[in-house]
Design a protein that fits this description.
By secondary structure, the chain is α+β, with helices and mostly antiparallel strands. It folds into 2 domains: 51 residues, no CATH class; 160 residues, no CATH class. The chain is 38% helix and 12% strand. Strand 1 and strand 2 form a beta hairpin. It is globular.
Length: 229
């Protein structure tokens, strides 16, 4: 066979050995083309869904081990941008697209971003009583909260639920602090379409609910003052 295989390409030797074996077993004939070695193309897949691995670009805002969700502060500056702080560490202003709350097809915020925005409007306490939301609306909200819950856990690297137990209060009450800037200038909206989506899709009942909570709190404060007198 010429020179020793130790001086040549071991791949060539393997191909030649394969040809000899195949001929011996009468699996190929002399007039058939020889097998050609092709470098193996490697694919990396998830075990479950056989989809290519994705590289996540989200940079989490880790909550220290000795801290809790109560140390997280999220403030909406407008419908696109939030200011994030964990304890004394500020992460600056982040856009919904950077945080991967974006619909890649339309480039507008996905529904759970709107849910987060609504929570900010009501300072993290979203009641779901019959007077406020219908059964269908409650079911939709429950699904959105579930998705948002998982997203927040991913962003802040915390397995603990970011919401208080629902059954105790029949409302969605965030363990973290969330609010909107007191005065939002319409001029800072980058895209009129996004503004239109928010005005249309944020449920009127949810806004009404925020007003009811505010009135309820004012009545409680008034009641306490009267009791003290």
């Amino acid at each position: 066979f010429g020179e020793s295989s130790s001086h040549g390409d071991s791949t060539d030797w393997n191909v030649l050995s394969t040809v000899i074996v195949l001929e011996t077993l009468d699996l190929i004939t002399n007039d058939e083309p020889l097998p050609i070695w092709v470098p193996e193309e490697k694919h990396y897949f998830h075990d479950m869904d056989k989809q290519p691995l994705r590289v996540h670009t989200i940079i989490p805002f880790p909550i220290p081990q000795d801290a809790s969700w109560g140390g997280v502060y999220i403030r909406f500056l407008d419908c696109e941008n939030v200011e994030i702080r964990v304890l004394e560490k500020s992460y600056g202003i982040k856009n919904f697209a950077v945080l991967e709350f974006e619909n890649k097809r339309t480039n507008i915020p996905i529904k759970i971003w709107k849910t987060l925005y609504t929570l900010a409007k009501v300072k993290g306490v979203l009641e779901t009583t019959d007077e406020i939301l219908s059964e269908k609306e409650r079911d939709t909200l429950e699904k959105n909260i579930s998705l948002l819950r998982n997203k927040l856990k991913e962003l802040f690297g915390r397995a603990e639920d970011p919401f208080q137990p629902y059954k105790k209060s029949n409302c969605y009450d965030t363990k973290f602090n969330i609010s909107v800037r007191e005065e939002i200038d319409d001029k800072i909206f980058r895209n009129d379409k996004i503004k239109e989506v928010y005005n249309y899709e944020i449920e009127k009942k949810e806004i009404q609910q925020a007003m009811k909570i505010k009135l309820k709190r004012l009545e409680e404060i008034k009641g306490k003052k009267e009791d003290s007198n």
